[in-house]
Amino acid sequence: MTGLAPDLSVTTERLTLRPFAPSDADRIRAVIAARHAFLPPGAPGHPSGISQWLAHGVHELHRSGQGVHLAMDAEGLVVGAISLFKTLWGAGTAEVGYGVHPMHRGRGYAPEAVRGLVRRLFESTTLRRIELRANLDNTASLRVAEKAGFVREGVLRAAALEDDGPHDVVVFGLLRTDLS
């Protein structure tokens, strides 16, 4: 299999990683109103865009065959998001990214989600390598990568441009053979 199943869903010990759905509208509305930044790129900045985003926008990455955005669902509550992107099926490579709602950080949801998604991808696709990139000054994200079993491979100097300027980025990698 070279692509992702249209109904990709992953169950871990405490989470269900699943496609975002119209039923998530109230939760997404609350997230946007509180200005919490953990939703995938392209998420609406105003409540008026929620319906369109949940019906189409958040699923465009999957429709294009380049990855997927999934909700991290803990007992019916969206506590975060995880994405697979920059997927090159011919090369067998992709990148994973994640975000957790501020009220749910520090509970181990991100490493659990990353481990679960990566394991499923290596079992059900032709991917052979998955990267994870984190700003060097983002200690929590660096710990997520390490807890999820990724190997630190190097630092890209000034590779990320944020609102406060350039940041160094740590590149982590995980190979299919690392899970053996």
How would you explain this protein's 3D organization?
The chain is of the alpha+beta class. The chain has a domain at 10-127: Gcn5-related N-acetyltransferase (GNAT) (Aminopeptidase, 3-Layer(aba) Sandwich), CATH 3.40.630.30. 24% of the residues lie in helices and 35% in strands. It contains five helices and eight strands. Strand 1 (10-11) and strand 2 form a beta hairpin. The longest helix is centred in the middle third of the chain and has 16 residues, at 109-124. The radius of gyration is 16 Å and the shape is globular. The two termini are 20 Å apart. The relative contact order is 0.14.
Number of strands: 8
Tell me roughly what share of residues is in helical segments. Answer: 10-25%
Number of helices: 5
Whole-number mean pLDDT: 94
**CATH first level of the domain at 10-127:** Alpha Beta
Q: Which stretches are poorly predicted, pLDDT < 50 over at least 5 residues?
A: none
> Can you tell me the CATH architecture of the domain at 10-127?
3-Layer(aba) Sandwich
Shape: globular
CATH superfamily membership of the domain at 10-127, which one?
Answer: Gcn5-related N-acetyltransferase (GNAT)
Quaternary state of this entry equals: single chain
Specify Rg, calculated over alpha carbons. 16 Å
| Cα-to-Cα separation, first versus last residue | 20 Å
In short:
The two termini are 20 Å apart.
